[in-house]
C-alpha cells in the first residue's frame, strides 16, 4: 500500500466510523432516521401495550389454555420476539408487547381460532382445524421390532364424515395440512378412513411427531378470545436502567480501548478504531432490521464486543510472534492475519451456528437474544478481519514501521499445565457437585432447587390506584420497599400505567392473609382506595412449551457445534472435549445461581447462552493451536509437551480477552440498577469460569481422551 493510499484508507475509515456514530446519535431528517433512540426496546427497557383477553363461553381446560398461550406466543413474535404471554386466572390471558399501542389491531389478528385446514393438491379445503378433536404423538414397534412414530388423530362426528369422503376421493394422493398458510405436513392417503380415527405415520422421531401434534392441536382449538382491557405500561426497569447501562457501556468501552493500547501499542489503536466501527455498524443494523433490544440483547452485544476484541487479540499475538521469529513488520502483519484466520473463523462460525439454531427453534427472549448475537458475530468478524487489517496496513504505509510500535513476542517458557490437570478436575467436580448438593438441600427444605422468578412460576399481580402519578424511579424508591417488607421478598416487578395513576406490581404468589396485609399497608402508607386495589393470580410468562423450545434449541445448538468442530478438526475428541467444557461452565454458573439464590428468569437463559458462546470461542483458539502444532510436529510428537506449549502460546489471548470482556461487564455491574447487577454478576462468574476452563480443562480433556481413549498416533 502506497503512502497516499494509506492516508486515504485511514481518513475514509475514520470518517465512515464517525459518520455511523453521528447517525446513531442524531439521525437524519425530521424523523431522525437511523438514530439509536429509534431502536425498538423491549418491555424491560421501554414498556409497551398490555392486553387482557378472556375466553368466550365455558372455561377452557388447562390443556386448551396452554395450547392457546403457546399459539399466541408464536403469533406475537411477529410483533416482537420479546413479547410475553401468560395466564391470568382460569380463563384470562395477558399479553404484553413492547413498542405497540393499537390493541384493537392486535385483537383482530390474535383473537381468532387457529387457521388450520386440510387441503387437496388443488388447494381445496376438505376440512378445517375445528373438525379435529384430538392429536397425539405415539411411539410403537413395527413388524421388524424397530421404533416408529406417528400422530394419531381423532375427529369430531362432523369431521369424521368429511374425512371419510375426502380420503375416499384422494386415495394415492396427498392431503396437505396447512397452518397459517404454511404446509406443515402432506401425508399420502393409503385408504378411505371412515371410523373417525386417522394416523400420520413414518414420522422421523417422537419429537417431530409431538411437534406436529401440538401444531394441529393449536390450530384446532375452539377457544375464542375477547378483549376486556388494554393499557400502555411503562418500562419494567425504567429510564434509569437505560441511562446507567449506556454510561456503563461508554466507560467500559473506553477502558477496553485503553487496555488494548497499553497492551498492544499501535495495533491497540487500530483495534480501538475497529471496535468503534463495530459499535456504529451494530447500532445502525439494529435500527435497520428493527431488532428489539432488551437486557438479554445487551448481553448479545457485550458478547459481540468480547469476540471482536478476541479476534484482534489473536491477530496481534500472531503478529508479535512473527516479528519475534525475525520477520519484517510488513511480513508479520500479512502472516499474522493469515495464521489467525482459521481460529477466528472457527470460533465465530461455531457460535454463529448456535445463534442460528436458537433463532430457528427458540421462543421469546431466546429468539431475541439469538438475533442480536448473530448480528454481533457477523459485525465483529467484519471489523476484525477487514477494518483492523485496513487500518494496520494504512499505519505501515504512513511510515509507522518500527517493530517496537507493534511489540515483539519473546519466547515463553512452556508452563506444565497438564501436571495440574487432576487438581483442576477435582476443583471442577467439587464446584459442580457442591452446587448440585446445594440445589438438593434447598429443594428438600421446600425453598426450591433454584430461585425461580415470576417468569418461570407465575405469582400475583397487584394494580394499585395511586393518588398521583409516579415515575418508575419513585415507584422503586417508595412503593416497592413497602411491598417487599410485607411479602418478605425483594423479587418484585413494577410498572406504571401511562395515562393513569395506576401502578402494577408483580410478586411471588401471595396467600389470602398476605394479600389482606398488603392492602392494609398500601392504604396506610399511600392513602389509596382499598376497594380499587385489584389482585389476581398470574401464570408463568415462560410457559412449559417455551422452556421446552429453549432446551431443544440449546441441545440442537450443542449438537451442531459438536459436528462442526468434528468436521473442522477431523477428530471427535476435539468436539467432545469442547462440548464437555461447555457443560462444565454452564454447571458451575448454575451452581453459583443456586448458592447465591439469584433469580432464575429469562435473563438466566440469556446469561447461560452468553457463557456458552463465550466459552466455545476460547476453546477453539487453544484447539486451533494444538492442531497447528500437531501438523508441524507430526505423529511422533510428545503430546503432553505439545499441549502445554499450545496453551502457553495462547495464554496471553485467554487472559487479555477475559480481562477486556470482564471490564465491560464489571462496569455494568458497578453502575447498573439492581436488576442489571443481578444479570451482570453471573456473567462475570461465567467469564472467569470460561477463562479457567479454556486454560485448565479443555486441553487436559483432549489429552486424556487422546492418550487414554484412543490411539496415540
TrEMBL record:
Subcellular location: Cell membrane
Presence of the UniProt keyword ATP-binding in the record: no
Annotated SecDF P1 head subdomain domain residues: 124-223
Family in the record: Belongs to the SecD/SecF family. SecD subfamily. Belongs to the SecD/SecF family. SecF subfamily.
Subunit field text: Forms a complex with SecD. Part of the essential Sec protein translocation apparatus which comprises SecA, SecYEG and auxiliary proteins SecDF. Other proteins may also be involved.
Function summary: Part of the Sec protein translocase complex. Interacts with the SecYEG preprotein conducting channel. SecDF uses the proton motive force (PMF) to complete protein translocation after the ATP-dependent function of SecA.
Stated name of the protein: Multifunctional fusion protein
Taxonomic path: Bacteria, Bacillati, Bacillota, Clostridia, Lachnospirales
Amino acid at each position: 500500500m502506497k503512502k497516499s493510499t494509506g492516508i486515504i484508507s485511514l481518513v475514509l475509515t475514520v470518517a465512515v466510523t464517525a459518520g455511523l456514530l453521528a447517525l446513531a446519535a442524531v439521525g437524519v431528517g425530521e424523523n431522525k432516521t437511523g438514530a439509536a433512540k429509534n431502536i425498538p426496546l423491549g418491555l424491560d427497557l421501554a414498556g409497551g401495550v398490555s392486553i387482557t383477553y378472556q375466553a368466550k363461553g365455558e372455561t377452557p381446560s388447562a390443556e386448551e389454555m396452554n395450547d392457546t398461550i403457546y399459539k399466541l406466543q408464536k403469533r406475537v413474535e411477529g410483533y416482537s420476539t420479546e413479547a410475553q404471554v401468560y395466564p391470568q386466572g382460569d380463563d384470562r390471558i395477558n399479553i404484553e408487547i413492547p413498542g405497540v399501542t393499537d390493541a384493537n389491531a392486535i385483537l383482530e389478528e390474535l383473537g381468532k381460532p387457529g387457521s388450520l385446514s386440510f387441503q387437496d393438491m388443488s388447494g381445496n379445503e376438505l376440512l378445517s382445524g375445528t373438525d379435529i378433536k384430538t392429536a397425539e404423538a405415539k411411539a410403537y414397534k413395527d413388524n421388524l421390532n424397530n421404533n416408529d412414530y406417528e400422530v394419531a388423530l381423532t375427529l369430531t362426528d362432523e369431521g369424521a364424515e368429511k374425512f371419510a369422503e375426502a380420503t375416499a376421493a384422494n386415495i394415492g394422493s396427498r392431503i396437505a395440512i396447512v397452518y397459517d398458510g404454511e404446509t406443515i405436513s402432506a401425508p399420502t392417503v393409503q385408504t378411505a378412513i371412515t371410523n373417525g380415527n386417522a394416523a400420520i405415520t413414518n414420522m422421523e422421531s417422537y419429537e417431530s411427531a409431538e411437534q406436529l401434534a401440538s401444531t394441529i392441536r393449536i390450530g384446532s382449538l375452539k377457544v375464542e378470545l375477547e378483549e376486556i382491557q388494554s393499557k400502555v405500561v411503562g418500562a419494567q426497569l425504567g429510564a434509569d436502567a437505560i441511562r446507567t447501562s449506556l454510561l456503563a457501556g461508554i466507560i467500559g468501552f473506553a477502558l477496553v480501548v485503553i487496555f488494548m493500547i497499553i497492551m498492544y501499542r499501535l495495533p491497540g489503536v487500530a483495534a480501538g478504531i475497529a471496535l468503534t466501527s463495530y459499535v456504529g455498524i451494530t447500532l445502525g443494523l439494529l435500527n435497520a432490521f428493527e431488532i428489539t433490544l432488551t437486557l438479554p440483547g445487551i448481553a448479545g452485544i457485550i458478547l459481540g464486543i468480547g469476540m471482536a476484541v478476541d479476534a484482534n487479540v489473536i491477530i496481534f499475538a500472531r503478529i508479535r510472534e512473527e516479528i519475534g521469529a525475525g520477520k519484517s513488520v510488513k511480513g508479520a502483519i500479512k502472516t499474522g492475519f493469515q495464521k489467525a484466520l482459521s481460529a477466528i473463523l472457527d470460533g465465530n462460525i461455531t457460535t454463529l451456528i448456535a445463534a442460528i439454531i436458537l433463532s430457528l427453534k427458540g421462543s421469546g427472549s431466546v429468539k431475541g437474544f439469538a438475533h442480536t448475537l448473530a448480528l454481533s458475530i457477523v459485525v465483529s468478524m467484519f471489523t476484525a478481519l477487514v477494518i483492523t487489517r485496513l487500518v494496520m496496513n494504512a499505519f505501515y504505509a504512513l511510515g509507522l514501521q518500527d517493530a517496537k510500535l507493534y511489540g515483539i513476542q519473546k519466547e515463553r517458557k512452556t508452563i506444565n499445565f497438564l501436571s495440574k490437570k487432576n487438581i483442576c478436575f477435582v476443583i471442577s467436580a467439587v464446584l459442580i457437585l457442591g452446587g448440585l448438593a446445594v440445589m438438593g438441600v434447598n429443594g428438600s427444605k421446600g425453598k426450591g432447587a433454584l430461585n425461580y422468578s415470576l417468569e418461570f412460576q407465575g405469582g400475583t399481580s397487584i394494580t394499585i390506584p395511586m393518588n398521583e402519578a409516579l415515575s418508575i424511579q419513585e415507584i422503586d424508591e417508595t412503593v416497592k420497599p413497602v411491598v417487599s417488607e410485607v411479602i418478605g421478598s425483594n423479587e418484585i416487578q413494577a410498572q406504571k400505567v401511562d395515562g393513569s395513576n395506576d401502578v402494577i406490581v408483580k410478586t411471588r404468589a401471595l396467600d389470602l392473609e398476605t394479600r389482606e396485609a398488603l392492602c392494609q399497608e398500601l392504604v396506610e402508607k399511600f392513602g389509596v382506595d382499598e376497594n380499587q386495589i385489584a389482585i389476581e393470580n398470574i401464570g408463568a410468562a415462560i410457559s412449559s412449551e417455551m422452556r421446552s423450545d429453549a432446551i431443544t434449541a440449546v441441545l440442537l445448538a450443542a449438537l451442531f457445534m459438536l459436528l462442526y468442530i468434528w468436521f473442522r478438526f477431523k477428530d471427535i475428541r476435539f468436539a467432545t472435549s469442547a462440548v464437555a467444557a461447555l457443560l462444565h461452565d454452564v454447571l458451575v454458573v448454575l451452581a453459583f445461581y443456586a448458592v447465591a439464590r439469584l433469580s432464575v428468569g429469562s435473563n438466566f437463559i440469556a446469561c447461560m447462552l452468553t457463557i456458552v458462546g463465550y466459552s466455545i470461542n476460547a476453546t477453539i483458539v487453544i484447539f486451533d493451536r494444538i492442531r497447528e502444532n500437531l501438523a508441524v510436529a507430526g505423529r511422533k510428537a510428545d503430546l503432553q509437551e505439545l499441549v502445554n506449549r499450545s496453551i502457553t502460546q495462547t495464554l496471553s489471548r485467554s487472559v487479555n480477552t477475559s480481562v477486556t470482556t470482564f471490564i465491560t461487564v464489571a462496569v455494568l455491574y458497578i453502575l447498573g440498577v439492581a436488576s442489571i447487577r443481578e444479570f451482570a454478576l453471573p456473567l462475570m462468574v461465567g467469564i472467569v469460569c470460561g477463562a479457567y476452563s479454556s486454560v485448565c480443562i479443555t486441553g487436559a480433556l483432549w489429552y486424556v481422551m487422546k492418550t487414554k481413549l484412543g490411539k496415540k498416533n
